[in-house]
Amino acid sequence: MKTAKENNSKLHINNKHKNGYNFVALCEVYPDLKEFVFVNKYGTETIDFANPKAVKAINTALLFKFYNISFWNFPDDNLCPPIPGRVDYIHYLADLLKSSGITNNISVLDIGTGANCIYPLLGNAEYQWNFLGTDIDKKSIDRAEKIIKKNKLSNAIKLIQQKDASQIFKGILTKDTKLSATICNPPFYKSQEEAMQANARKLEGLGNTDSVESRNFSGKQQELWYKGGEKAFIHTYAYESAQFKTNCFWYTTLVSKKQNAESLVPSLKKMGATKIKTIPMHQGNKVTRIVAWTFLTEEEQKAWI
Questions:
Q1: 3-state DSSP: the chain helix, strand, coil percent, rounded to 5?
Q2: Domains observed in the chain
Q3: How confident is the model at residue 211 (pLDDT cuts 50, 70, 90)?
């Protein structure tokens, strides 16, 4: 019996999922996954990645098997993140911090942590980072808080609600805040209609055209779309970061569209960024990127370390 590769070979060298999935081992730690596993026409064990429940089950199993998580539960209509891609961001951020001499007492702000709390869970499991997670949705905060408490991570992961949906850092950062980095997976779409059209294309690519009304990884409005889409969000993010230039070493965000990343660079330069890096990430046939920037001078960077 073959083991499913799921085209993960281009993941970060430290990614535990770069060689595919061992479904026998995953089902041992999370038996609920068994009902979704089948052998495809190539003789490979896999799941239906167009099925939201199957996707949630395999990602739960990955957390249980590899990241010392024993509880990960949230409503099915909340976004279920793919663990291999999310932990790739963590590994590339670790490389960035290390290249800057930041290896100890790392604190990260996760913007839009969601009900799944995935980045804090992964970052703490892999590198023992401390996290502050923010979200505009109180229910998501409450559900993420339950996950944190159940996994005995309350000392390492703190949450705070962003009560002003028009703001990102205001109301969260203070003049005394000192962060090693920020992390963000911004809403990709401009509207519900655009999100559903993209979902229909994805499901068709996965061979499922029966249920375009549900996303294979689910997701609520604040998780998926933002007025003006990804470009508007990341430019707002960058503008606000410039108001807290010395509070964080590296501001970072995922950017799905190459042209959006390119448009961000001149804006950051105008706002005084001293270093800007674009870090490509490959997940199967999908290419995305992390844009990272700092406003610190060379002297400030040295003093930080």
A1: 40, 20, 40
A2: 79-304 (3.40.50.150)
A3: very low
